[in-house]
Amino acid sequence: MDPAGINRGIIIYSCSARVLRERNQTKGVRTLTKGNAPLLSAILFIGLFGVAGTARAYYDGILSKQELTPDSYCHMKFPAMHRRSLAVGNEPELKSENKDDVIDFYGPCDESPSGKDQVQEQRLEEEHRFFESHAD
What we know:
2 domains, three-stranded antiparallel β-sheet, 49% helix
């Protein structure tokens, strides 16, 4: 699961607990009563739902997607593939979203971050880098 999403859920939970605690302390009531438990549970559930949404977005491999022309032309950002997965016969594998190696793509909205076109493009880019570094 995505660490940023987990942190978001923890922050939502801790903020909601603090709000309940402050509200109850001003009334002179114990921190958590039976009446507040459903509210706290609902806030926690919503926070976890946000975590699941973040994990789902990364599961697609797309970090950001902006439609420039509806249903045809998009600007997308997604992680590059691991170098070892670009070898012929290997299954394409995306790098972690925390890496700085991000593909800035302009093109069809149905482009897949690990599709055949991207594998071919990234192989060519990797070959170009290899020959550039060994040209001397």
